[in-house]
Write a structure and sequence with these properties.
Layout (H helix, E strand, L loop, with lengths): L2 H13 L17 E6 L10 H15 L6 E6 L7 H10 L4 E5 L22 H12 L1 H11 L1 E8 L4 E5 L13 E4 L3 H10 L2 E4 L5 H7 L4 E4 L1 H6 L8 E8 L2 E7 H6 L2 H35 L3 E3 L3 H8 L1 H9 L4 H9 L3
Parallel strand pairs: 1-2, 1-3, 6-7, 6-8, 9-11
Antiparallel strand pairs: 3-10, 4-10, 5-8, 5-9
Helix pairs in contact: 2-10, 4-13, 6-11
Length: about 350
Amino acid sequence: MHANTEGTRRALLAAAGVLAAPAIIGRAGAAPLRMRLSSSLPNDPKYANGRTFSDRLQQALAENGLSDRIALQFFPDNQLGQEIDVINSVKLGVIDMMVSGTSISANLVPLVGVLDLGYLFQSFPQQTRAIEAGAGKPIEDALLKGAGIRVIAWSYNFGGRSVLAKKPVHTPEDLAGLKIRTLPNPVITECLRMMGAAATPLAFGEIYTALQAGVLDGLEHDPPTVLASKFYETAKFYALTEHICSPLVLYFSDATFKRMDPKLRDGFLDAAQRAAAAHRAYGLAAEQEALGVLKSSGVMVIPCDKAAVRKRVLPQTKAFLRRMPEAKPVVDRIQDTAA
């Protein structure tokens, strides 16, 4: 966004009171605090990680006795805008929360992109070990300092990202020339190029029609998202590259954080942590169930030559560290927790 556009936007927000001096909200006896949570994924209560996280957060709020004090409003399916617009609105405090992967926030704070490196994590349980061992702390600090966004919970995407295509992919050579949609993120785009594909960044909401029109030959995503978004209707070959196992994150506006009554805030943050723990357990099972449903829906699931793909991608981490040496403590902590 150009400086003059940003200045105009901030002026309008200030006039509306959004950027005014923070007032404490959510005091006992007051009307319920309305908080908006955004997700780009469909409103699927079983396979969409945004909806499933929202449901568990609602449950945790009820268990903490906060249902009458916090009115959580969930907006799936890009209802509040494309992800890049939403993350900027969270930064400004216009939207309170967003549940998404790490790639979207890397557009604001490039250090976050370290978590999207190909084959950095061996598994999702290792991811939890690494976060609990402190690998997430530099990311949290950088997002708060650089974008005014807090990470208040870490969870799982529902499986590693693999390649769904209109033709079988058994080896890296099979990816040559295929236009595979990636997130609009340079780290993930680079990963797919190293794998051999013609990486094609595109907003999530445009994928289905691009597949229909032949603009894309495929995409890379986890099994439940492929199922929930019905991408399997236009591409029938799913190669289990599992090239990225990056986290799912609950992003929280620091502006909202500062305006909340501290007692209400503490209960809310505790609910977010407990929701994330329940969501991680659910996600591991959802991946396997979704793979089974995809197979029964006519998708050919291909155990491709993952070792050959991994060999191509591994140099990405060293190159990233040369460009961004401050990411080394994160990578070291993750590698220390590998089995």
